[in-house]
Amino acid sequence: QQQQQQQQVRPGVPLVQGNNRATPPPQQTGQGQAPQFQYDTASFAVTELGRRIGTVLGQQSNAGVFSPVSIACALSLLLLGADNETKRELQNVLNFNLNERDTRRVHRQYGRMLRELAVTSPDTYPIPWRVNDRCSDDDDDDEDFRPEPQLIHLANALFVKDGLQVNPAFVDASQGFYNTTINLMDFAGNPQQSAANINRWASDNTYGKINQIVSNYISPETQMIVANALYFKGLWKEVFEKQATTFRKFYPDGHANPSTAKEILTMAVIGCFPYYDAVKYDAKIVGLPYQGEKTALYVIIPNNSSRARLQQLQRTLNAEKIGDMVSQMTVRKALVQIPKMKISNTINLRDILQKLNLHSLFNPATSDLSKMLKTSGPATADPYNPDRVIFADTRQQPQQQQRLYASEIIHKVELEINEKGTEGGAVTASTIFRSLPSVQVRIDTPFLMMIGHDNTRLPLFYGSIYDPSG
């Protein structure tokens, strides 16, 4: 039993040496104790990538929400085809600063995790607060209630110019690790139909949430499009009754600056929620579980929150610290008020990734994606929802210097947080404010959010919210 327990505890391994990068903590699980929050190398790397992108994006947007899983998936596919400086820079931005053998191990690990996202069986590596939850047990008095399964769908595709000599080893690796489909496109002869086919793929794989990832006209010089789509739908475990939703003040610049407050539609509920007052990080964290016991929306609020305070926290709150906070959470009876939000973001990641020292990929003179092709080839790029990268021909280059490069990487996100969720439940507007519990979480100042998947520890969505109204 002890041996089996040790196998289930999967501490991460150091990824990148240096003072500015965190490494997964080697936590231990003692006999009779709940398991700690553990990262694999891949899940740690994706969480760190999310924090680093979010730190840059949070300086530019009122609602900088994105999908770290989706972005990492697209970059990982590029890494499979990269060499030399482009490969080294991709490894660094992905936190995969490993030798070739270990990099392939992480690809296998990450691919396995992506497949696990769609699994609905019980978690192998439960989150500690779920193991110790007694509050929810007391409330489960509806024997006829059956939770709705959540839906997580992730798809990868390569759209390749008909006649382009793609390296069979790259095709095998992309299919083996990431279950990528290969689609031949007549970019030169019928660019409009090619665009329609790609957009249809995006719509089908996001259940209609994102209908366009490329323009209706694709350049005839396009060689390849690397695409990734992520769709998530989860119903709340605790009911948010619509009658309890009302306009409440939200303070984008903190309570100390009430003149900038806005009236925002805010949901409210009393129920059982994981919670932790993280004194050492000067912040609080609350979790809103979805049905199915596999995912939760985590909200982290700095004490005396404001735009500046949240930016400061985000710069220092690395993957290790987030894991530590989640490990300390316990389920409490709590009042939770959270803004009702509909987030629609289109993010050009080129400038952000360049700030993270990914340069050569975007330079036709230095980009090296030669492992994608049988021979060195050409390019232009532009990614999408969760993400799309387009490769086009650089005909102005001498034949021997033609190469694939990314012109831009576009990330699209549609995310809605509303009252829809658990069917059946006992909380109504009349009971919400009658007897308030000791834990009250009023999310009315800038906050950090993350939709986390328990079994893989992967962040499906991540971002900072400074102004829910946009």
TrEMBL record:
Residues 1-35 are annotated as: Disordered. Belongs to the serpin family. InterPro entries: Serpin_dom (IPR023796), Serpin_fam (IPR000215), Serpin_sf (IPR036186), Serpin_sf_1 (IPR042178), Serpin_sf_2 (IPR042185). Keywords: Protease inhibitor, Serine protease inhibitor. It comes from Culex tarsalis. Pfam families: Serpin. Residues 51-468 form the Serpin domain. One of its GO terms (cellular component) is extracellular space. One of its GO terms (molecular function) is serine-type endopeptidase inhibitor activity. One of its GO terms (biological process) is negative regulation of proteolysis. The keyword Lyase does not apply. It comes from the Eukaryota. This is Putative serine proteinase inhibitor.
